[in-house]
């Protein structure tokens, strides 16, 4: 069962004390419950942008309070966004808009984390097919879901911004554990249809393996950068001539511009 697979991974890869990047959603909760079942000393970390509580930050604290787990809520400042954007482009090689938005909180989170080991529920959504794209094009047959998962995990060198998260861990001398990228988890989900895992409610299959979910109530899937309105902050860069070099109308195009610029610089430096 999926709970036992997660238990094996966490038991083998994580020390006695562990930080969990906590969103308050199903995936990070499964890791919290797994770590607690194993008797780990857990400290959760979440964030709120511009000092404003979000659904995720509020729910993460609520869950941690229920299970008597300490949590640190990190304020993300708005004032440094121009320099932060440049850092994400040049140092962390972000390419897509979602990579910029999802990696940005790490700039302020990692200096706060004290624990050596870090647990993340990164990429779990790739199994469930609950994104808009998956719901429209892939949920209808097992073969289509397998195609979606293969594209998300096997054909993608950087699922859900894993490389950026890994780089932060390397810089801060942390040991990262991302159970949902383990082959055993991929193999488990590969044979499951959309209905197998999302009926009678979203992510039912995994929630049914953790009795702890009966103590809490959480919403269905929502991208955490949208929930926290990080995307709205990045939209302000459209009016910044220092960042919007070519008068783009979409943030995604600005992100691509900066990625291409930095790739060109890297190629030139390697040539010289």
CATH evolutionary superfamily: HUPs
Number of domains: 1
Q: What's the story with the biggest beta sheet?
A: 5 strands, parallel
**Count of individual beta strands:** 5
Q: What is the name of the CATH topology?
A: Rossmann fold
Oligomeric state, counting identical vs distinct chains: single chain
Strand order of the largest sheet: 3-2-1-4-5
Low-confidence stretches: none
Please trace the helix and strand order, writing H or E for each element.
Answer: HEHEHEHHHEHHHHEHHHHHH
* CATH class placement: Alpha Beta
Distance between the termini: 53 Å
**Radius of gyration computed on alpha carbons:** 19 Å
Shape: globular
The assigned CATH architecture is: 3-Layer(aba) Sandwich
Indicate the percent of residues in helices. Answer: 40-55%
- Average pLDDT metric: 93
As a percent range, the share of strand residues is: 5-15%
Number of helices: 16
């Amino acid at each position: 069962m999926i709970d036992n697979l997660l238990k094996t991974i966490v038991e083998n890869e994580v020390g006695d004390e562990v930080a969990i990047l906590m969103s308050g959603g199903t995936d990070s909760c499964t890791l919290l419950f797994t770590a607690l079942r194993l008797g780990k000393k857990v400290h959760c970390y979440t964030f709120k942008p511009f000092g404003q509580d979000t659904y995720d930050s509020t729910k993460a604290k609520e869950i941690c309070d229920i299970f008597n787990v300490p949590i640190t809520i990190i304020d993300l400042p708005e004032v440094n966004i121009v320099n932060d954007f440049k850092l994400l482009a040049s140092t962390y090689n972000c390419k897509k808009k979602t990579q910029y938005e999802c990696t940005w909180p790490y700039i302020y989170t990692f200096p706060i984390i004290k624990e050596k080991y870090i647990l993340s529920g990164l990429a779990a959504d790739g199994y469930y097919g609950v994104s808009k794209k998956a719901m429209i094009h892939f949920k209808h047959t097992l073969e289509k879901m397998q195609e979606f998962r293969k594209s998300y995990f096997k054909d993608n060198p950087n699922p859900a911004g894993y490389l950026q998260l890994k780089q932060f861990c390397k810089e801060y001398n942390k040991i990262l554990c991302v159970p949902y990228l383990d082959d055993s988890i991929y193999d488990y989900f590969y044979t499951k249809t959309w209905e197998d895992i999302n009926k009678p409610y979203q992510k039912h299959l995994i929630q049914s393996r953790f009795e702890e979910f009966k103590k809490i109530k959480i919403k269905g899937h929502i991208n955490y950068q949208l929930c926290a309105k990080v995307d709205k902050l990045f939209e302000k860069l459209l009016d910044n001539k220092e960042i919007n070099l070519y008068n783009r109308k979409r943030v995604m195009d600005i992100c691509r511009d900066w990625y291409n610029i930095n790739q060109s610089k890297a190629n030139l430096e390697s040539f010289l």
